[in-house]
Amino acid sequence: MLTEKQKMLAGKAYHAGDSELSKERLKAREIVFEFNNLAPKFFKQRKDLLKRLFGKTERMFYVEPPFRCDYGYNIEIGDNFYANFNLVILDCAKVSIGDNVFIAPNVAIYTAGHPLHAHLRDQHVEWAQPVTIGNSVWIGGNVVINAGVKIGSNVVIGSGSVVTKDIPDNMLAFGNPCKVVREITDEDKEYYYKNFKIEE
């Protein structure tokens, strides 16, 4: 018989009020509280706390406080990762983030969900599906990434987007719901913003 944690990690319906999961969330909140309340000069201490919290980190990463998550151990970040203020990751399932990913302020990544029917919701049934973000991705401010989404490499997600479906590699996508607008090509190497050309 599966435990509630095993059900959660397997993508099955589970009860989040389970004692084991409650203890693990409390442990994560204690670390997050310490992280968010350290003085700005304590860079190394904050980094060490995230190394304890996250399932996987690389050499170069930086997360601006405040930050929030559920468990921490389901979060894996690649090298040269940067997250601006107010990143929220509800990591009831795995959140895998590649190298060279930049995340703007107020981004929310949700792996958790609740049943549509109130009868099941009222019993505190939940479910979770993983989120995957590739390499060299820029996620704009106030973006929401929903459970089960895969974002490819070399992608830009515009500000305010709600990402409900997968985004392929090399795409500019934005909107609510988020949709692919166009492919990012080598021509874009000449411009840093719209028609603003990089001078030689």
Features:
acyltransferase; repeat; 4 helices; 30% strand; single chain; 200 residues; UDP N-Acetylglucosamine Acyltransferase, domain 1; five-stranded parallel β-sheet; seven-stranded mixed β-sheet; alpha/beta
Mean pLDDT: 96
The sequence of SSEs as H and E is HEHHEEEEEEEEEHEEEEEEEEEEE
- The CATH architecture classification is 3 Solenoid
Helix content: 10-25%
Number of helices: 4
Shape: globular
Gyration radius, in Å:
18 Å
Q: What's the CATH H-level superfamily name?
A: Hexapeptide repeat proteins
Which sequence of strands runs across the widest sheet?
2-5-8-13-16-18-19
CATH class: Mainly Beta
Q: Please give the number of β-strands.
A: 21
The biggest beta sheet is recorded as: 7 strands, mixed
Description:
With 200 residues, the chain is an alpha/beta fold. The chain has a single domain, classed as UDP N-Acetylglucosamine Acyltransferase, domain 1 (3 Solenoid). It has four helices and 21 strands. The chain has helices spanning 4-9, 19-37, 43-53, 118-121, and strands spanning 14-15, 61-63, 67-69, 75-77, 81-83, 87-90, 95-97, 102-103, 108-110, 112-113, 125-128, 131-133, 138-139, 144-145, 150-151, 156-157, 162-163, 171-174, 179-183, 191-193, 196-197.
